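Hello,

Our lab assistant flagged a job as stuck in the queue for most of the afternoon. It eventually completed. Since we weren't sure the result was trustworthy after the delay, we are filing this so someone can double-check. Below is the sequence as submitted and the structure that was eventually returned. Let us know if re-running is recommended.
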Amino acid sequence: MQHDRRRERENDHPRAQGAAKGLPEPSERPTAEARPGQEQASGAGVSRRRLLGSAGAAGAAGLVLGGAGGAAVHAATASEPGTALSTVGSSRAPFHGRHQAGILQPMQARGHLVAFDLVPGAGRREAAALLRRWSAVAERLMAGHPAGGGDTGVALDAGPSSLTVTFGFGASFFGRTGLTGRRPVELEPLPAFSADRLDARRSNGDLWVQIGADDALVAFHALRAVQKEAAGAAKVRWQMNGFNRAPGATAQPMTTRNLMGQVDGTGNPKPSEPDFDARVFVPAGGGRGGSGAQAWMAGGSYAVVRRIRMLLDDWEKLSLAKQEQVIGRRKADGAPLTGGTETTEPDLEKAGADGRPVIAADAHSRISAPEQNGGAAMLRRPFSYHDGIGPDGEPDAGLIFVAWQADPRRGFVPVQRKLDRGDALSPFIRHEASGLYAVPGGPAEGEYVGQRLLES
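-- returned structure --
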């Protein structure tokens, strides 16, 4: 009976009726592989998907406000079938290339970060076999194919959904595999900072995997595949789960916001800048020369990963004006307090009527600015997280900070040292976990990630 009722409902659907009458299907699916939100309104009017999105939002408001506007929205949405946001599922990142995927791609809606330790007795041979398996399954999944034999079917109906799987090595990996002489000097331990409250159980690790996708099931499917392939060679040390704004949630592409409500990522270096590669990626030859140069790292990058808890109860007690003073930017649009738009360079010399700098001396945006740190910069590509309510009764929420740079000693470390000495944001955040990983360049056709290290 339940199946019969479902079939009757499907036959009553406008799309089904059209098919029964031999009418053509609506051909409204976007075919481009651009990210949702990037389509433009045509000369004939607003795109259909944007109209449906607006209708959904207005419908929610109509339930509260009532009136003819709400009724019109409900009538419109009830008479038209839903349209799949096909570009979300079909968007695909390359597995092969000069750099690993997951660094330059736009931030995805869902993410899993997981660190592994090799099991006792596992060494270089077992590590190479594991990276070979991981690379094979990542290539299949990123292309939108099943993981292989024993696939769980979790993402059976979805496309690749911008899936990226990125692999890195922690400092401890080199000792465990007999490759101590190949460990880059850039992997020396990060210094201690006064804001650190680090949990060793959720820090470091021999191997690190970053998974991102625009669909939660696709991301979870990749996580399970990676974990299953590790069996017998490595065990999970820690795992963190994160999220960002979903593609298409805004009318046009925008810099994402963090859980404090601030636009986050405005000051990132841009690929169009002439020194972008020098800041983010290891050059050919593997480094700056000397004993630290490691050719296997050419085209790679170093990832600093920090779990930063935001003390949201304290933050949200601040007035809007005070929050903006702490950051040095307007909350509404991310523009500097000295005026302009989000992308306007802050005028750090500008003073107010009282003679004080408009952007305070301890404002986060001032202290972290590259020009205040000898040009030091990182490509930040974080995820937000929320793990419920902590033992202290406050939200266990914040930022999984992921920063990419050619050398953390010239990127993350000098900036964090300066922030540690007097950032107005420091009382509202707590660094609770940390890791540093060497992420080799992307594999060529026929290679697996890390092959140039493990088989040289």
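-- support follow-up --
The delay was a queue issue, not a problem with the job. The result is valid. Strands lie at 110-118, 164-169, 207-213, 234-243, 301-310, 379-380, 383-389, 395-405, 429-439. The first helix runs from residue 2 to 12.
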